[in-house]
Design brief:
single chain, mainly alpha
Length: about 100
């Protein structure tokens, strides 16, 4: 085999490997998005709405509070986490 053909095969192999890794990476992100959507869909809509309103529609704040609640209280349901942060925000506001 000539050197040119060997180099070409190596380049094609690298491109194929890159494409496979890129596809795997995107699949992982898609799985992450689906899991996030699925997790949010099990929340009582009224709890979700009240939490968003109390937080002033600040979704970054809500996500931050959810992460803290998940870390401090493992093995709870997603509904419990949303109710917890809603309760905490209402308590802090004196509602």
């Amino acid at each position: 085999m000539s050197i040119g053909l060997t180099v070409l095969l190596v380049i094609v192999g690298i491109v194929l490997l890159y494409c496979a890794l890129e596809k795997f990476s995107n699949k992982s992100r898609a799985d992450e998005i689906f899991a996030d959507w699925q997790r949010k869909s099990v929340i009582d809509p009224e709890t979700r709405r009240r939490t968003i309103v109390i937080a002033g529609h600040d979704m970054e704040r809500i996500e931050r509070l959810l992460e803290i609640a998940r870390r401090n209280n493992p093995d709870r349901t997603e509904q419990w986490y949303w109710e917890k942060i809603l309760y905490d925000m209402e308590r802090d506001r004196g509602v």
